[in-house]
Specification:
The chain has 460 residues and is of the alpha/beta class. The chain has 15 helices and twelve strands. The chain has two domains: 146 residues, 3-Layer(aba) Sandwich (Rossmann fold); 223 residues, 3-Layer(aba) Sandwich (Rossmann fold).
């Protein structure tokens, strides 16, 4: 029966409780009540708000409540400092011109130059970029590196672009946002569907406008043009270290544990590899076209080969399942490594993993957080779980500034030490405030940004 017919029926029925059995329902009830006393039409259940900026603000408010911040301070900390929207006209291979929409948002520079990735995706919006910039601010503060948060993106499906079209779009976008960029102002990095080559184009374009090479204007570059050893796997390695810390506290041996990874891109594929090398049985992985599952464990080399050859992990040997189903598998560790808003109040109760490690930004909504916390699920929040990338970006920036480059084992040692220390501090906050790891991480990060803002004061 439709919602409309259900509502009409309720208006015709008496306001007293309905009889319990079919036989009782056949007995005539009392005369209908007067229209002004009729039972009110039930309100439909509100849809969950999946706007990433709205739930980034809600997460911030929860931390601000714990910190006792006043209204003015909350407004300063939660409002982006700068927002740039740019048209990006590009000459396509066939001679036509297409105009794309590009964004760059600087959320905060209270603790240093703003830092954050560039993503190319058809679903990029200003609100998404604002949310990601805010999360970057807290993330940098959680791992205690001297950056504020920024983010950028272009609303485009990069899979439909040739290499030349992608390069021309990247260079024009860089030119449009160059008024914000600089090694001491705003430093981009790779994100969804961007990579070291993208960063090389950005660095070269900015350098051409300056007349000299500015290696430190972006991070995540190829080694040949000022990149850092260990940067490609940094996000995944940091996530793995955080999983190790969570598993140790749960007394969960990784050797023999099971895992599923949603998103087999740069971060997801590397996390899966690190887990596999630690003895974890990775039973499922996915990409934008679907997921593949084998309860005995996947051969990750074969999965990577299938994706490389046929364009998707679903071509690998195993049972084909959906990106929704992979989240609900009976595994010990779940790694959402795709996009935001995939774990919601609709599916959170069906998440079976003991540990959810957010390699992606914003994959869990606030409503889902509440459900998972009530279940006892350990959620390692994005601003801790995927902070390895920005940590090694910081190392790369330092190396570029001094033109002195570190050996891979030095980078790895510093990265591991940074993530373990940050996890310990977040865990300590969680115990102190009797809250979940996300709120604890936000209390830590927001508190550090608030302290810097307060000490600096307002100008003028």
């Amino acid at each position: 029966m439709s919602e409309k017919s259900e509502s009409a029926k309720e208006k015709r029925m008496p306001s007293k409780p309905k009889p319990a059995s079919p036989a009782a329902r056949a007995v005539p009830g009392p005369k209908p009540v007067a229209p002004d006393r009729a039972a009110p039409k039930p309100k439909p259940v509100a849809e969950e708000n999946l706007n990433p900026y709205e739930f980034a603000l809600l997460q911030f408010e929860r931390a601000a409540d714990h910190l006792g911040l006043d209204t003015g301070v909350r407004e300063v900390l939660s409002t982006p400092k700068r927002q740039l929207i740019a048209s990006v006209p590009v000459k396509m291979d066939d001679g036509s011109i297409s105009v794309f929409h590009g964004y760059r948002v600087q959320h905060s520079i209270a603790r240093g130059p703003s830092k954050g990735g560039i993503r190319y995706h058809p679903d990029v919006t200003l609100d998404e970029v604002k949310a990601l910039a805010m999360w970057m601010t807290w993330k940098c503060a959680v791992v205690n590196i001297p950056f504020g948060g920024a983010k950028g993106g272009i609303t485009v499906d990069p899979k439909k672009l040739s290499l030349g079209e992608n390069e021309r779009m990247t260079r024009r976008y860089t030119s449009e946002i160059s008024i914000l960029l600089g090694h001491d102002r705003d430093i981009p990095a790779p994100d969804v569907y961007t990579n070291p080559q993208t960063m090389a184009w950005m660095m070269d374009t900015f350098s051409m406008t300056k007349g000299y090479s500015t290696l430190g204007v972006v991070t995540g570059k190829p080694l040949a043009v000022g990149g850092s050893a260990g940067r490609n796997d940094a996000t995944a390695e940091g996530c793995f270290v955080a999983i190790e810390e969570a598993a140790r506290r749960l007394s969960l041996p990784l050797n023999g544990a099971t895992a599923a990874v949603q998103g087999f891109g740069n971060a997801g594929a590397a996390v899966a590899r690190f887990l596999d090398e630690a003895g974890v049985r990775v039973v499922a992985v996915s990409d934008s076209k679907g997921a593949v599952y084998d309860k005995r464990g996947l051969a990750l080399d074969a999965v990577s080969a299938a994706k490389e050859k046929k364009g998707s992990v679903t071509a690998a040997r195993g049972e084909r399942i959906t990106n929704d189903e992979i989240l609900e598998l009976p595994v010990d560790i779940l790694v959402p490594a795709a996009l935001e808003g995939v774990i919601t109040r609709k599916n959170a109760a069906r998440i079976k993993a003991q540990i959810v490690a957010e390699a992606a930004n914003g994959p869990t909504t606030p409503d889902a957080d509440d459900i998972l916390r009530a279940k006892g699920t350990i959620v390692i929040p994005d601003i801790l779980a995927n902070a390895g990338g920005v940590t090694v970006s910081y190392f790369e920036w330092v190396q570029d500034l001094y033109s002195f480059f570190w050996e891979p084992d030095v980078v790895r040692t510093h990265l591991e030490r940074t993530i373990r220390r940050a996890y310990d501090e977040v865990d300590g906050m969680a115990r102190r405030y009797n809250t979940d790891l996300r709120t604890a991480a936000l209390i830590l990060g927001v508190g550090r940004v608030e302290e810097a803002t307060r000490i600096r004061g307002l100008f003028p």
